[in-house]
Amino acid sequence: MVWFVVGIALALPAGLWLVQVNMEEMTVEWQGRPGLSVYFELDASPERIYAVKRFLVQTPSVKTVKVTSAADALAEFKNYSGLGDALELLNENPLPASLQAQFADGITGAVVDALTERLGQQVGVGEVVVEKTWLERLNDISSVVSRLSVVLAILFGMGAVLVTASSVRLAIEARLDELRVLKLVGATAGQIRRPFLYFGVIYGFGGGVIASMLIAITVLVIEPPLQSLLGSYDQALNMVGFDPIFLVVLLAVGGSLGVLGALIAVRQRLAALEIF
Amino acid sequence: MGQIELQHVTKRFENGHEAVADVSTSFAEGSMTFLTGRSGAGKSTFLKLLIRAQQPTRGKIFVNNINIAGMPERRLPRYRQHIGVVFQDHHLLSTRTVFDNVATPLRVAGLSEKDVARRVRPALTTVELDGKEGLYPKHLSTGEQQRVGIARAVVIRPKILLADEPTGNLDPALSRHIMELFARFNQVGTTVIVASHDVSLIETMGARILNLENGRIVSDRVTEVPSGLENSSGEMS
Ligand SMILES: Nc1ncnc2c1ncn2[C@@H]1O[C@H](COP(=O)(O)OP(=O)(O)OP(=O)(O)O)[C@@H](O)[C@H]1O
Ligand SMILES: [Mg+2]
C-alpha cells in the first residue's frame, strides 16, 4: 500500500521528466527542417495540384516540395493503421492529396504567414498546416512540461516523504512499549533508530520499483500509437531516458526519500521518548 | 563518598512543581533502601533521576564518582546498561517469550546468542521461573510476570538495582516474596533502592527507609532486622 502511494508519487514526476526529455529530443530533430503541408480538397484535380506545386517550387524561400497523391496517402495510412481491410470496404478514397514543402533556412515568420495566406487562397486547397506553429507549440509544451515536472517532483517528492514518515510513525507507535524498554536497558539511539530507517529504505525502494513498473507499462501502452503518429511525420520513435541509469536513479531517489521520511518520523517520535 | 551521592538535587517541572526539592543523601555500595511516602511525594521522580530518565533542574548526582546530571546524551546508553530497573506494571513485551523478554538487555549490549542463553537461564532460576522461558507473558500469573521483569533487570548483573512499586498489584504473600527476592540480590552485593508505599511490609524488611514528602526527605532511618512478623507502625506521618 505504502509502496503504491510512494510509487505513484515517484512515477508522475519521473514519467513527466521522460516525456520532456523525449520532447526535447524531437524538437531538436524537427527544428532542422520546418516546413508546411498543403492538404487539397478531395475533388482537387491533378492540374490544380500541379499548379500549387509549381508555385511553391518557384517560391525562393521554399527548398523542396513533395507531393503525396491521394492513392499514396491511402496506401501509407493502410500501412500504419493496420485498418487495410476495413478501408477496402470504402468506395472512395477518403484521404486528400497533399503536398509537403520544406522551407529554406532562415525563413522569417512574416514570410511564412504571407505564403500561408496565398496558398490558402488557391483553388482546390483545403488546408494549409505550417509545421512551424506545431513546433512552437511543442516547444511551449515542452517547457511547460519541464516546469510542471519540477513542480510535481517537488510536490510528489514531499508527498512520498510524508507518506513514508507517517507509515514509519505508525510502525514506531505500534512498537512504543518495546522502544521504551530498549531505551531503558541502554539501547543507543542508533540501535533504536535502525529498524525504522530500514523501513524507510524499503518503503522508498519498493516505491521506486512500483514507479518503474508503472512507467514501463505506460511506455509499452503508448509506444505503438506514438510510433505510428510519429511515423506519419517521418520520425522514427527513439525513446531516450528510460534506461538502466534512469531506473537506478529512480530507486536511489525512492530510497533516499524513504530514509528522509523515516528520519523525520524518528526525530519527531523517538527523541522525546519517555523511558518510564 | 557513597556509590550514589545526591547533592542538593531539585527536579522542577515546567509547571513549577518541584517533585524533588533540594535532596542531598547518599547510598553506600551494597546497601538496601526503601523509598517511601505518599502518592505524589516524588518517589518515581527520584528513581527517574538516578537513571537519567529525567534531568535534574539543579544539583549533582554522582554514581561511581561520575556526575550523571552532566553526562552527555550519547553516554547514557552505556550507563543505563549497568543499572537494573523494575516497574510496577513490569513493562514486559507481550509479543515476546519470557526468554526473549529477559534476553533483551543482553542483546542490546551485543552479547552472542550463546552467552545470552548462558545468562538468561540462571536469571530465570533465581526468580524461580525454570521451564517457563518459552511462554508468553499473558500465560503467566501476575506474580510470575513481575518475576520476569525482575529477571530482566538482574540478567545483566547490575551493580545497582532500582524498583518502582514492584509489589504494587500483588497480594501480601506475593509482595513479601518479591521483596525477599530483592533482599537476596542485595545480599550478593547489589545496591538496591525500592520505591514502595507498602509501609507494613517494608517495616519488616530490616533495611534503610527514606521517607519523602513533597519532594523532601522527612525521615531517614534503619529498621531492625525483623524478629518475627510484628509491625512497628510508629513513624509514618
Ligand atoms: N512530567 C511531569 N510534569 C509535571 N509534574 C509532574 C511530572 N511528573 C511528575 N509530576 C508531579 O511530581 C510529583 C511527584 O511525582 P512522582 O511520580 O514522583 O510521585 P510518586 O511518589 O512516585 O507517586 P506514586 O506513589 O503515586 O507513584 C507529583 O505531584 C506529580 O504530579
Ligand atoms: Mg510513582
- Series of secondary-structure elements of chain B, N-terminal to C-terminal: EEEHEEHEHHHEHEHEE
Biggest sheet record of chain A: 4 strands, antiparallel
Structural class by SSE content of chain B: alpha/beta
Average pLDDT of chain B works out at 90
Q: If interface size is counted as residues with C-beta under 8 Å from the partner's C-beta, which chains form the largest one?
A: A-B, 16 and 23 residues
Number of helical stretches of at least 4 residues of chain A: 9
Our measurement of the CA-to-CA distance between the termini of chain B, rounded to an integer number of angstroms, reads 30 Å
Spatial shape of chain B: globular
Largest sheet of chain B: 6 strands, mixed
Radius of gyration of chain A: 29 Å
Poorly predicted regions of chain B? 229-237
- Hetero groups: adenosine-5'-triphosphate, magnesium ion
Helix content of chain B: 25-40%
Q: How many helical elements of chain B?
A: 7
Q: What's the arrangement of strands in the largest beta sheet of chain B?
A: 6-7-8-3-9-10
What are the segments of chain A in which pLDDT stays under 50 over at least 5 consecutive residues?
none
**Radius of gyration of chain B, Cα only, in angstroms?**
18 Å
Number of strands of chain B: 10
Sheet with most strands: strand arrangement of chain A: 2-3-1-4
Instruction: Give the amount of beta strand of chain A, in percent.
Output: 5-15%
User: Which whole number gives the mean pLDDT of chain A?
Assistant: 82
